[in-house]
Design a protein that fits this description.
The protein is α/β, with parallel strands linked by helices. The protein has 5 helices and 18 strands. Helix 3 crosses helix 4.
């Protein structure tokens, strides 16, 4: 089980700026989020979320080009990002020092959202990979989930008080980060004035319970699922599996404990319910140290020099059901005439064995990353149309 300590780390890390030197905090103190050092990402500085996002586009005929990434010089909305379980700290709860693992995952998951929004990402004392490994081996969970939530809540309050200034916000997370944001919405946002400022809540990689016959009223009482790129104040949630390998009976994803509820599935690439190719941005060398390495991207075996790869038309997604499980089914559109690979990595592999109950957890965001980024921008435009900024002065 040792390689679980790298479940969510990317093997092809973007070049990130020099890390700020975050101050550590003891378990009985709240981080000082008024200090820039307590943030993994903030606007206007060179940090993990400012990493290069250029991508190599590989087409079905084998031709290639480079897509150069460009950021909006004057973003009109904000993104508040909470990263997944990545800490390699030896303690059950992490410290507040940004290790390479935190920087890498933020560059991969949040950096592309900076195309349209200002990105704020707090450091927080998350449950570490070591604590997760122990829990998976049947030992008591020693990581302090309440501490992790309290840190993110304190960062959210600081952001609202001093950085937001009435702007619309997209909440973005993955895995543990998504679970914390789900709790934040339920406990601190719903039913408060700030709820009107939520453009959307993007929380893949965690289970969100919704009634089987409607899309609001489960884990979140007044935040519905998104059905359109013009919907605002809504949720995008899913857990991904290969279409040919649906969740097994012991799966941790795609199912909720409430017998009268189901796990939410919103396909960001096909909000209208019609399957279509996704706008994926995949790691050029693979999905992480706990995944098999990515093989050649095309028949000619040519190397890729960018961190990210786009493969237009190769992947499609749709929300699917299998018994009580609801999940995002990912299909590789294999074609003998296509000169690209037919296999995209993303399964969690430990000791040479695929952990079927994790599905494609490692690539929950990458398989639809472009769709998520543009969806958030479309929703922000819809939100701004209803909530125009106040005139200066």
């Amino acid at each position: 089980m040792k390689s679980l300590a790298a479940i969510l780390l990317a093997t092809a890390a973007p070049t990130v700026g020099a890390a700020q030197a975050p101050a550590t905090a003891s378990a009985d103190t709240t981080p000082k989020y008024e200090s820039a050092d307590a943030w993994l990402c903030r606007p206007g500085r060179v940090d993990a979320c400012a990493a290069n996002q250029d991508a190599t586009i590989i087409r079905a005929d084998g031709s290639r080009s480079i897509e150069h990434f460009a950021r909006d010089e004057s973003p009109k909305f904000d993104c508040f990002y909470v990263y997944p379980t990545v800490s390699l700290d030896p303690t059950p709860s992490s410290d507040l020092v940004a290790g390479r693992e935190e920087q890498v995952v933020a560059a991969f998951q949040a950096g592309r959202f900076a195309k349209h929004c200002r990105v704020f990402a707090p450091l927080y004392r998350q449950v570490t990979l070591g604590a997760l490994r122990e829990a998976m081996l049947g030992k008591p969970m020693r990581g302090d989930r309440a501490l992790a939530y309290a840190d993110v809540k304190a960062a959210w309050d600081e952001y609202l008080a001093y950085d937001n200034h009435g702007r619309g916000v997209v909440l973005v997370g993955h895995s543990q980060g998504s679970g914390i944001l789900k709790e934040l919405v339920a406990r601190a946002i719903e039913g408060t004035p700030v709820q009107r400022q939520i453009i959307s809540v993007i929380i893949p990689g965690t289970n969100v319970a919704v009634p089987a016959d409607r899309d609001v009223g489960g884990d979140l009482k007044s935040t519905p699922l998104c059905h359109s790129n013009k919907d605002t104040g809504c949720v995008v949630s899913y857990t991904s599996f290969r279409a040919e390998a649906p969740p097994p009976s012991n799966s941790r994803f795609g199912i909720v404990p409430q017998p009268d509820m189901v796990a939410a599935c919103v396909d960001p690439a096909a909000l209208d319910g019609k399957p279509k190719p996704t706008d994926a941005y995949l790691g050029a060398r693979g999905a992480g140290l706990a995944s098999a390495p990515q093989g050649p991207w095309s028949n000619d075996g040519a190397a890729v020099t960018t961190t990210f790869v786009k493969v237009p038309g190769l992947l499609s997604t749709r929300c699917a059901s299998s018994g009580r499980f609801r999940y995002l089914a990912v299909t590789t559109n294999a074609n003998p005439a296509d000169k690209r690979t037919d296999h995209i990595v993303g399964d969690v592999v430990v000791g040479g064995k695929i952990l079927d109950d994790w599905g494609l957890h490692l690539v929950d965001l990458p398989v639809v990353m472009g769709d998520l980024v543009e969806l958030s921008n479309d929703q922000a435009k819809a939100w701004l149309a209803k909530n125009p900024p106040l005139p200066a002065g």
